[in-house]
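Box 3.1 A note on notation
Throughout this textbook, protein chains are presented in two layers. The first layer is the amino acid sequence; the second is a token string describing backbone geometry. Keep the layers aligned when reading.
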Amino acid sequence: MDAASLLTGLLLGALLATAVTLGVVALGARRRPDDGLEPVHESLDHLHRLLAGMERARATAHGELREQMGTVGSASTQLKQETAALVTALRTPHVRGRWGEVQLRRVVEVAGLVEHCDFVEQPSGTNDAGAGVRPDLVVTLADGRQVVVDAKVPFTGYIEAVQATEEAVRVQRVAMHARQLRAHVDALAARRYPTAFRPAAPFTVLFVPSDGFLMTALEAEPGLLEHGFAKDVVIATPSTLLALLRTVAYSWRQERLARDADQVLEVGRRLHARLSTLSGHLTRLGAALGTTMTRFNETVGSYESSVLTAARRFDDLGIAESPVPTPVPVEATVRSLRPAQPPLPDDADEDDDVPATRNGTDG
């Protein structure tokens, strides 16, 4: 409506300026012949058409503005209805609990626990008092212990505090919200979740779906966190729970790396023992090969001195068709197995030229 008023004022100003112009032209026409008024009539016709176009544009703009204002009003009304419906839904314990569970599920997915940790949603258990309990989430730590997480938090007082228009009413509703959260901490501690899931951490995590819920409660009762710690209840918002769960995931990775390192150490020990056994076999085989070659050379010597002497007499008498071949002694040596020593940079090539001996001796 302000734009329409501005446009109307501009139009009135233009009309006033036109009237003044017409007056000046009329005064001048009285002093001139009638033939000099033809250009004035053309200018007035042009001005009339221009003003008519401006009026049509103003009417169109006014209609569009009215339509847009109606659309904004309709959207505002719909938004107000949706907000009221959301507030009404959040006042219902079932809807409020389901919303907390959805928020908890999102935090778990962001933390990456699906890949690195084992967790169970809404498991059933029985505490040491014989009462059945059912938390929203149970996360398994690297050492086998479990952490219980509950997401059912009352925040009716917080909603009323946000909707309050007076400061006194807001302070009263904030105090009520803090009392509700404190009472829920006491109720959660009375359920004794850690005794129902063993081995479990000696505390229970109370998940608050929004950081604003906890900050508002701490305004009225700054010692709420200490009260929860005294009751073995840790109040966690999405940001703090995300850090906690990421720590759990990190502990899983470290535990897996430590387990793999232990397996590598065990495989190394087995390999070392087998290498020791193989070294013993190689040492005994080298000794046996050296003894075999010694016995072979001794046999060849005895064969040459005793048997071939008589066989050559047949050759001298021309009885044999061909002479008896003389066996050649084996002069190869068996290299002994020595402990590995790191060679010096200058002596690395010289070690390869050192001749090996058979069992420390030649022959």
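The mean pLDDT is 76. The first strand starts at residue 119 and ends at 121.
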